Amino acid sequence: MEQAPTSRLPRTVVIVPAYNEALNIEQALDDLRRRAPWADVVVVDDGSSDATARIARAAGVPTLSLACNLGVGGAVQTGYQYALRHGYEAAVQFDGDGQHRASEIEHLVSGLAAQQADLVIGSRLAEGIRFRFHPLRFIGNRLLSALVSRIAGRRLSDPTSGFRAASSRAVRFFARYYPQSYLGDTAEALVWASRGGLKIVEVPARMRQRKAGTSATGSLRGFLHTLRIVLAVLVDCLEERIRPEP
């Protein structure tokens, strides 16, 4: 894929939260280097006990190592604080497990201006995109989709997708306000953003299946956590709205 001139795109940083992703992080960073060389990258090592941070630093990528495991929400918020501190105009959340495709980043970032959006979600379920979910995870995703779409006032087919681009306005918002609970970094973050007045849109995005490691979201325990997020989202709706800075 031919890369767009950087003059066409906002100054962007790709936030890569990673916890014990030594088997995947090198491939993910290589994909970013080859497919999105116009974007800067920062890895947030979420208290990994393996060689994740060492591998990222050996690849020449700025790496923030958290003293303990905060969870994805804490790692992603750290990345947004880094983006805000360094004056980036856009930030992209990109998983360190190799599922996200760097070739799709330009599409997400371009959507910020093209659709006058604050947050662009890469959806695995839009316009015929095929992605294989564990049955329990698919049910949970459908349940959250119906609820989050109702709250956001627009159809969001894939609220648990962690592949998304944020405008400078959304960067400021998330650097200050970001949910820390399980799946809060995906579905609940969308509720906070929507109720905070940020415009959210979706674009189709092809993703890879995980090749190494395991995901908790495909288990019964993960499904029960999804139900807990549904309850958390309903509670969020009873709280006062968060107003972002202009």
C-alpha geometry? globular
Number of strands: 7
- Compute the number of helices: 8
Overall mean pLDDT stands at 86
State the strand order across the main sheet. Answer: 3-2-1-4-6-5-7
- CATH-scheme architecture: Alpha-Beta Complex
Q: Strand count, sense and closure of the main sheet?
A: 7 strands, mixed
Strand percentage lies at 5-15%
* Fourth CATH level, the homologous superfamily: Spore Coat Polysaccharide Biosynthesis Protein SpsA, Chain A
Question: Could you characterize what this model shows?
Answer:
- It is built from 8 helices and 7 strands.
- The chain is an alpha/beta fold and 246 residues long.
- A 7-stranded mixed beta sheet has the order 3-2-1-4-6-5-7, with helices on both faces.
- The protein starts with 11 loop residues before the first strand and ends in a 10-residue tail after the last helix.
